[in-house]
Amino acid sequence: MGLTSVVSPVLEIAATGAAIPSGVYDAVLVSSAKGVECAGADAGRYKSLPMHVVGAKTARAAEVQGWRTDIVAGNAEAILPLLLARYPEPAHFLYLAGRDRQAALEAGLGGAGHSVTAVNVYEAQAAQALSDDASAALGAGEIDFALHYSRRSVELFLNLAESAGLSDALPGIVHIALSSDVAAPLEARGLDVARAEKPDEDHLLTTLAHSVS
Question: How many domains does the chain fold into?
Fold first, then answer.
């Protein structure tokens, strides 16, 4: 697109080292590649089970580590009806999850009579500051667009910008949000927000391309 990227992670992913309880599971769920990468050796004994995942990136990470992926869906809302159709009788799922997550998938499965054992194998720790490059570019008014992937990362970004005295730079940016939920804190500040038509990176980048043109 002819754009230059300035990267400033506001979340740092770390494995928790949580042990996976022994049990009889029917399938494994994972909604992020980090759930696979941070699961640890304990998870290996369940590789004979079908793994149902959210996102093609997650599927690739799972397959690299020898998991047998089955259902692959674009987001948690899309995978729930597929799981309910695949498992008409009560099933027990092992969910390799992040500590901070939306509850829709677990609630939907539980409401249909399934059991979910969620293990928090990774967590997202808040960064203490924006990157030097990002702070300098914001301060100089050189940022035209900002890509936002999660509500928590948006909230952290806003707080870090405020702490750095850069809040006044934010109204001059077009903020591209992955979903309505991600957009909400930005819109609450009265910022210029464009939402992706669907909550995945391809649509996020399509929205950016439309904003550029």
Answer: 2
Beta-sheet pairing, 115-126 with 11-15: antiparallel
CA distances to 14, 36, 37, 57, 103 from 64, in Å = 20, 10, 10, 11, 28
For 102-126, write each residue's pLDDT tens digit: 888 999 999 999 999 999 999 988 9
Q: Which residues contact 70 (CB under 8 A, 6 or more apart)?
A: 27, 50, 51, 52, 86
Domain that holds residue 65: 11-125
Among candidate residues 89, 90, 96, the one with its CA nearest the CA of residue 117 = 96
User: pTM for the full model?
Assistant: 0.68
101 and 139 within one domain: no
What type of residue sits at position 140?
A
Q: Which of 93, 125, 157 is the last residue of a domain?
A: 125
Q: What kind and span of H or E run contains 156?
A: helix 151-163
For 49-80, give the DSSP string: SEEEEESHHHHHHHHHTT-EEEEEESSHHHHH
